[in-house]
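Model it.
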Amino acid sequence: MDFRLPFEPEHLPFLFLAIVIAFTVHEFAHAATAYRFGDPTAQKLGRVTLNPMPHVSLLGLLFILFLGFGWARPVPVNRSNFKNPRLMSIVVSAVGPLSNLVVAIVSAAAAYGLFATGALDAASPGLYRAVGLIFFYLVHINMLLFIFNLIPLPPLDGYRIVEDLAPLRLRLQMMKYEAWGVYIFLLIVFITPVFNVTLGPILGQVVVWRHALLAFMSALFGANIDWVYVFGG
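Modeled.
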């Protein structure tokens, strides 16, 4: 299954940092929004923070590093504390992936903005590559989490959004079979032929969106980053 993230061993520190930042921002967005809407559950557990320690799961981090599929610690939400449970639950679910999109856009802008200044023209090859790699992985991982988490399968945010948008009768049926949905999701992820015709084409859009974003920022700032050199040295 071609689902592992392509990286060289020396890229591991940059990939690790990008994943930790992406997971932390994603879970913080869920927790902070739920707290803003009146649910103190996550706040009482110390989840309304940009400190990665309460958010990152070591096992989930190892999975995404080596299998391309992983997870952070989910943010607990008590929707009964919301004034408008369905609407506010949709927003709480959506802000996680959207926060990753924002980080991807900001990272791409920061990368080309920095290179446009010429500040790295005289930099050593190692520094040039290091800066390029951290920005690349920040864009790639956050774009991946944005697209991946909007897939409408449990336990992803996209499923929660669809569940809250569904009529009551359909929502009750979805809740009844939700536990089975998690197993179906895992089968889709780990059985190659099924993955290739379901999630594979969706996740293939990560490269398309990443390329489009980087190309836009390159044109916007009038700067070029030698990605071949960044990756090849």
